[in-house]
Amino acid sequence: MEFVQTGVKNEILYWGKRLYQKGMSPSTSGNISIKTKEGILITASGTCANDLSEDDIVLIDYDGNLKDGNKKPSSEKIMHSEIYTLRNDINAIIHCHCPLITSFAVAGIPIKKAIIPDFVYEFDEIPLVPYFCPSSIELAQSVGKRFEKYNAVLLKNHGIVIGDVNLQQAFYKLEIIRNYVEIYFGSQVLGKTCLLNRKQQNEIKNLKI
Ligand SMILES: [Zn+2]
Description:
Number of helices: 7
CATH architecture: 3-Layer(aba) Sandwich
Helix content: 40-55%
Number of domains: 1
Structural class: alpha+beta
Shape: globular
CATH topology: L-fuculose-1-phosphate Aldolase
Largest sheet: 8 strands, mixed
Distance between the termini: 39 Å
Number of strands: 8
Strand order of the largest sheet: 4-3-2-1-5-8-7-6
Order of helices and strands: HEEEEHEHHEHEEHH
Bound molecules: zinc ion
């Protein structure tokens, strides 16, 4: 079990660095977790994604109780647990305060325009949940409810949470959302944002079949 956990912890260390270095998780914001047979491995409270060590990743049960490790688990542990409980197909979760993406959450605008094929292929919409205090049960439940239908959700005035089969996929999808936002802002600066029409969107969706 120790060996398996070391491997999984290394995944969190690796993708944590990628997340920070891409500017998507500044300072000690955000948290990362992976579902394991023994419970949920999650980053500890107050840790920076770029500087994680194995000791900064702790094991909790689905009620958020500490099972292994010496640090306090992330304060958003209930949100992670809520999503895993609801979705058997999700094995990894990233929650971050990526500034570019969070600007949509602050503006109260869901991310859903058909501006680039990658986004249309992977997503229909990144919906927005109302503001609730970070770490609260209300936030966890509100996000959980949206995960019944979606794999990524914007948290009003806060950030984004995304889940997938593994951390690599969660990170890649997050990058697509981040690219969307960057491109959208660029097109707005240029004064024109052209959308893909319904036929073009359907062609893209059909590439999946
Ligand atoms: Zn947060």
